[in-house]
Structure formats: C-alpha cells, structure tokens
TrEMBL record:
Keywords: Cell projection, Cytoplasm, Cytoskeleton. The lineage of its organism: Eukaryota, Metazoa, Chordata, Craniata, Vertebrata. Its main location: other. Pfam families: FAM183. Transmembrane segments: none annotated. It comes from Aquila chrysaetos chrysaetos. The keyword Cytoplasm applies. GO terms for cellular component: ciliary base; cytoskeleton. The gene is CFAP144. It comes from the Eukaryota. Belongs to the CFAP144 family. It is found in: Cell projection, Cilium; Cytoplasm, Cytoskeleton. This is Cilia and flagella associated protein 144.
Length: 137
C-alpha cells in the first residue's frame, strides 16, 4: 500500500504485466473483424444523390436487381420475411387472420343493423323490397 503522505510505490513489473495481459484479453474478446458489409434495413433510401451539375453522373444506369430486392425485402413486415416469429414479442401478433370469418353483409348478426333496417322500412316513403321473390311480383 502506498503511504498517505502522497508518495507512491515504484511500479511493480509483474502487476503491470498482469494488467496489460488482462486488457489485451478483453480487447481480443470484444474485437470482431467485419468483412461482409450490408445495407442498413432501417434506412429506406434506394439511391445516393449525385452531383446535379455533372453530366456523367446524370446518365441513367440500369438498376441493380439484387440491390433493389435487398431493399424491398428489408422493408417487408416480419410475417412476409420469415416463416416463424424471430422474437417472443413477435409471437403475440404473428397470426392476424381471424379464426372465424365474419359475414359483414348479414344484418341478422348485428343488432344495430337490424334496428336501422326496421327504422328505414318504417319511415321511408318507398317500401324497401328485401326479398328477390317480392321483386318479381
């Protein structure tokens, strides 16, 4: 221990080597070599803007199909990208199709529509013909 008078002990070479080895181990553990670069899927830009006054940059070039497919694939919602949910939170809303199909045209299922149909029949000037058989008569 160092004395409280502000004097320090001379550096211990064994302790310094130990600290250096620990630091190198931590750096090597966290260091990764990135060799494959990809497009950021959160940044939805198809092209990079060019200089407006240069004539050779304004020549139309064919679009790279692979790049466009990558951009459009990144913009898809997760249900179209993946076969199964990738996270726990995706499992909650993964299946969005209703289990029972609703027939919206059937007024017998909805009390409000039944009441409004009765109201329009009762107070309308012309009688509403509901059945196909009545139309033919």
């Amino acid at each position: 221990m160092a004395a409280r008078s502000g004097e320090r002990e001379p550096p211990d070479p064994v302790r310094q080597n130990q600290l250096l080895c620990e630091r190198v181990r931590k750096e090597l553990r966290c260091q990764r070599l990135h060799t494959q670069y990809d497009v950021n899927p959160l940044h939805r830009v198809h092209t990079i803007t060019k200089k407006p006054m240069s004539w050779h940059d304004n020549i139309e070039e064919p679009a790279d199909a692979k790049f466009l497919n990558l951009i459009h694939h990144a913009a898809l919602e997760p249900t179209k990208k993946y076969a199964e949910p990738q996270t726990e939170s995706q499992e909650i809303g993964w299946n969005t199709t209703p289990l029972v199909s609703r027939v919206l045209k059937d007024s017998a299922l909805c009390k409000i529509q039944r009441g409004s149909a009765h109201h329009t029949e009762r107070y309308s000037r012309k009688k509403i013909i509901r059945d196909k058989h009545r139309k033919q008569e």
